[in-house]
Amino acid sequence: MDARIEVPEGGVLPADGVQPGDGGEEAAEVCIVGTGFAGMGAAIRLKQAGIGPVVLLEAAGDVGGTWRDNTYPGCACDIPSHLYSFSFAPKADWTRMYPPQAEIQDYMRDVARRFGLLPHIRFHAAVTACAYDAAAALWRVRCADGRRVAARFLILGLGGLSRPALPDIPGRGSFQGRAFHSQQWDHGYDLTGKRVAVIGTGASAIQFVPRIAPQVARLHLFQRTPPWIMPRPDRPIGPWERAVYRHVPGAAWLRRASIYWWQESLAVGFTLYPGLLRRSEQKAKDHIAAQIPDPELRRKVTPDFHIGCKRVLISDDYYPALTRPTVELVTDPVREITSTGIVTADGVERAVDCIVYGTGFRATDYLAPLRVVGPDGVDLNERWRDGAEAHLGTTVAGYPNLFLMTGPNTGLGHNSIVFMIEAQLNLVMDLLCRVRDSGARTVEPRAEVQRRFNEAVQERMRRTVWMSGCRSWYLDARGRNTTLWPGFTVEYWRRTRRAVPGDYLLDAPHPVPAVAADTTAVGGRADDAGRADRSESLIY
Q1: Which stretches of 352-488 are DSSP H helices?
Q2: Which spans of this chain does the record mark as coiled coil (predicted)?
Q3: Which of 100, 101, 159, 525 is placed for a possible disulfide with 75 were both Cys, Cβ 3.0 to 4.6 Å?
């Protein structure tokens, strides 16, 4: 398979049916920001429904979202491969039970080609601001390079794990060696024989630390809070097994369904009865005991909070890496970074050549630095200053024709986010079809409906393990969990299959459509193909 998608100079591929708008703007019925699972999934569903023209804006030079950006050593998914794909575009030839980054990225590129998305993508188009023009009933989207798009509907597929979080440590900018975040891995910098500091022991660090530990001269791993880590039941998927999934009817579906329901069963402990997780906690402790003989090191890596309160990780090689003589696990807090190293609270300075920040992402900053300004002139970032909220994590009162993919409280601690994205798309498509069929200009949720929904979410959240007292990236600055869905994914799927008409405001009929639907450009007939009943079950 080709290593990457070839993009002409300027980042624009020819787009049939998409014409320039007034004032140098490119006109579209729908503008999608981002080409990860969310953005590409939205574009595919729009094409199938005959809604268009569609323009996708992508800041980078390739599709893939987080799987394009994260290329650190050992990067892989922690959801089994057969579930980590679109239900309408299954992949029968995964090579491992847990897919590595490169294989997921190849899958994303293949999906873009297979569904004809490339002509509609504008690469190297970093969106900086979106403002709603109420008089024209259009979203006006501006890119950093001056390109502009005017669209009736705006879908933001930004991804919750796309903006790196760097720690606020005094002196961070003074370090004279090499420093980078794990998402921005410097593959041109040779770590061989170097003294390396890694700050953070989260999901990324437990994957790259075992890969670089044998290579470096010395590795100092700075840990604030140890994670709970379960065994990783990974293995290669052999040629014969892949052949079964390709050629035996129903085999791949059965595999996908079994994984889905196993993952879904974990929600019982996370969201309803946290006490059920005690067996999992003991299994994690047994994992530590089996892989770390030193009692002091075992003590350092054993969390003091309930399993599940923070993201549960999976690895079979992280703990053994910590036992290497060249690896030091440092649990004293970092006090400052100097020009030559890192000083901890006990006053000890460790000189290093390189610092790798495995400090995660700004998961609760859903939009920043992108500005999204509604018809009242208020930036959604400002409106969310005290906490992000949306109706069903998808639409926001006061922001007509705006749809958020993986928005507030749609993240998961137990199952595949691709499932949630497809469930969201059922709702988005149902709303778009209702607007089209009624001739309305705009759609948005009623403010009181959004308020009641989020009050119910937070009330349910109080009973979950995620609110059991630890500090995690699931929580915002006020301690509210605006990240995760507090229940089963099958419930979310049921609630998003069709919109409840009374929950939404559709305004007066649109006298002249901003952009006529171009069914030839998007390769489909404008009928009910976009409605939610196309996908009776996303595990199929």
Answers
A1: 380-383, 417-438, 447-461
A2: none
A3: 101
Instruction: Round to whole Å and give the CA distance between 490 and 428.
Output: 17
Q: Which has the closest alpha carbon to 78: 273, 266, 245, 252? A: 266
pLDDT in tens, 396-428: 999 999 999 999 999 999 999 999 999 999 999
**For residue 100, what is the DSSP state?**
B
Burial (CB count within 10 angstroms: exposed 0-12, middle 13-18, buried 19+), residue 240: exposed
The per-residue pLDDT for 23 is 55
Q: Is pTM beyond 0.85 here? A: yes
Tell me which residue of 356, 340, 337, 355 sits closest to 169, measured CA to CA.
337
- DSSP-assigned letter for residue 540: -
Residue 118: name the closest of 179, 181, 55, 68 by CA: 55
Q: Any idea which residue has 């996303």 for tokens?
A: 538
Q: What is the pLDDT of residues 432-449, one digit of tens each?
A: 999 999 999 999 999 999
Pick the closest to residue 51 from 540, 371, 516 (CA basis): 516
pLDDT for position 292 = 98
- Residue 391, SS3? strand
**Cβ-proximal residues to 275 (8 Å cutoff; 6+ apart), any chain:** 269
Distance of CA 197 to the CA centre of its chain: 27
